[in-house]
């Protein structure tokens, strides 16, 4: 090993590198170590020096750096081996996020899981940043939670999603979910899937239609995937072609306990809304009219 103080000012300046005076401990390939310390973008470095017990001279270093081939715009890629321990821990883990400004503690969520949920085996709850992690002992419990997508705990909406092992925690995103929506005010002559889907598409992506249970209650019932970061519609005007008569059709979102009447977003009430009243009023003043 060599302990060297390298005279590298002229080398750095020739490649527009900021000069840093430092002492390096280099092993069998001092030039290679030095070059890769300067920049991770060097590639195809193939240098040979005569075997010697003395360190290379500054001229040898300068000559070596001049032989380096650059690959602009290419950063080093580090491939890490998978961890069996992490795979075992995360294999049956579901991510959850509270859509409510009140929030819940880990103990409250775990208590609800143990005492209220129907499950096949134990489900352990932990917390990571703004997310709850549900570690399921049974793989079928994992699939059931993912298909459920959302659940209400103590009056608070909890959104659930499968964990993607390739996505870092900074990119975890639970800003959409599928909710059942009850539609009131539609004439019984228009109780069909086509009308239900048209109304659902005004709210988001239509997922399912429940005509059987909806008709028994005199309503349309649709499942819609909505964007939780955007305002939701309270209703639309419905033109069924009844001699120009337009009806107001209202939307009621199941499992949603807190819907702001000011900004029309889920998870808080008007008293705690941060959107100015004038801004919210301007965006909510526009109503759609569905013409069949």
Compute the separation of the termini in Å: 83 Å
Extended strand count: 15
Major β-sheet strand ordering: 11-12-10-14-13-15
Structural class: alpha+beta
Range of strand content: 25-35%
- List low-confidence stretches: 1-72
Count of separate structural domains: 3
Backbone shape: globular
Question: In sequence order, what are the helices and strands, one letter per element?
Answer: EHEHEHEHEHEEHEEEHEHEEEHE
Provide the residue-averaged pLDDT: 75
Number of separate helices: 9
Helix content: 25-40%
Report the radius of gyration as a whole number of Å.
31 Å
The biggest beta sheet reads:
6 strands, mixed
Question: What's the gist of this structure?
Answer:
This protein has 292 residues and is of the alpha+beta class. It is built from nine helices and 15 strands.
Task: Report on the architecture of this protein.
19% of the residues are buried. The chain has three domains: 2-70, no CATH class; 84-171, RRM (RNA recognition motif) domain (Alpha-Beta Plaits, 2-Layer Sandwich), CATH 3.30.70.330; 176-291, no CATH class. Residues 1-72 have low confidence and may be disordered. It has helices spanning 9-14, 30-38, 58-66, 84-90, 106-116, 139-148, 193-201, 211-216, 277-284; strands spanning 2-5, 23-26, 42-43, 69-70, 93-98, 123-128, 131-136, 150-153, 156-162, 176-184, 205-209, 220-227, 235-242, 245-253, 289-291. The strands form four sheets. The protein has a six-stranded mixed beta sheet. Strands 6-7-5-9-8 form a five-stranded antiparallel beta sheet, with helices on one face. It has a two-stranded antiparallel ribbon with strand order 1-2. The protein starts with a strand and ends with a strand. The protein is globular, with a radius of gyration of 31 Å. 26% of the residues lie in helices and 28% in strands. With 292 residues, it is an alpha+beta fold. The chain is built from nine helices and 15 strands.
């Amino acid at each position: 090993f060599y302990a060297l103080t390298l005279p590298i000012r002229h080398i750095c300046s020739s490649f527009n590198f900021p000069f840093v005076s430092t002492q390096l401990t280099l092993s069998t390939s001092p030039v290679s170590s030095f070059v890769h310390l300067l920049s991770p973008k060097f590639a195809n470095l193939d240098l040979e020096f005569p075997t010697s017990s003395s360190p290379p001279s500054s001229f040898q270093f300068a000559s070596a750096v001049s032989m380096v081939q650059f690959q602009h715009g290419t950063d080093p890629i580090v491939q890490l081996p998978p961890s069996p321990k992490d795979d075992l821990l995360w294999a049956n883990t579901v991510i959850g996020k509270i859509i409510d400004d009140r929030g819940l503690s880990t103990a409250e969520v775990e208590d609800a899981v143990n005492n209220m949920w129907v499950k096949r085996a134990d489900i352990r709850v932990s917390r990571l940043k703004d997310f709850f992690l549900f570690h399921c002992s049974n793989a079928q419990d994992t699939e059931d939670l993912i298909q459920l997508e959302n659940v209400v705990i103590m009056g608070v909406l909890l959104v659930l999603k499968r964990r993607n092992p390739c996505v870092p925690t900074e990119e975890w995103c639970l800003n959409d979910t599928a909710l059942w929506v009850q539609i009131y005010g539609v004439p019984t002559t228009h109780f069909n899937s086509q009308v239900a889907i048209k109304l659902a598409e005004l709210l988001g992506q239509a997922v399912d239609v429940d005509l059987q249970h909806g008709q028994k209650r005199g309503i349309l019932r649709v499942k819609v995937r909505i964007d939780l970061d955007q305002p939701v519609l309270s209703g639309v005007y419905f033109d069924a072609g009844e001699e120009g008569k337009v009806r107001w059709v209202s939307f009621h979102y199941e499992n949603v306990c807190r819907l702001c009447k000011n900004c029309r977003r889920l998870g808080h009430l008007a008293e705690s809304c941060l959107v100015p009243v004038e801004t919210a009023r301007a965006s909510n003043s526009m109503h759609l009219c569905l013409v069949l």
